[in-house]
Design a protein that fits this description.
This protein is an alpha+beta fold. It contains 2 helices and 2 strands. Strands 1-2 form a two-stranded parallel sheet. Helix 1 links the parallel strand 1 and strand 2. The model has no long low-confidence stretch (mean pLDDT 91).
């Protein structure tokens, strides 16, 4: 219910194997937000992104965010 009140552009970073939410659940949540949103899904990674196989995840997130705020 609070997602519909968001007016701030919102980025989601999601580990593809995160047990807390599926991609479909995140997409449903994004649809409730009237502001611009974006989703970066990290393959083969759970809730703790730093423990996934992608060692450059911080750089990928920074680049994703930079592109989001520039666009």
């Amino acid at each position: 219910q609070h997602l519909g009140a968001l007016r701030t552009p919102t980025c989601f970073v999601h580990g593809a194997t995160d047990p807390f939410a599926t991609r479909e659940e995140l997409e449903a949540a994004r649809a409730l937000i009237p502001a611009r949103t974006a989703l970066l899904e990290v393959p083969s990674t759970g809730h703790d992104l730093s423990r996934g196989p992608d060692r450059a995840i911080g750089e990928r997130i920074a680049a994703f965010f930079q592109e989001f705020v520039s666009g």
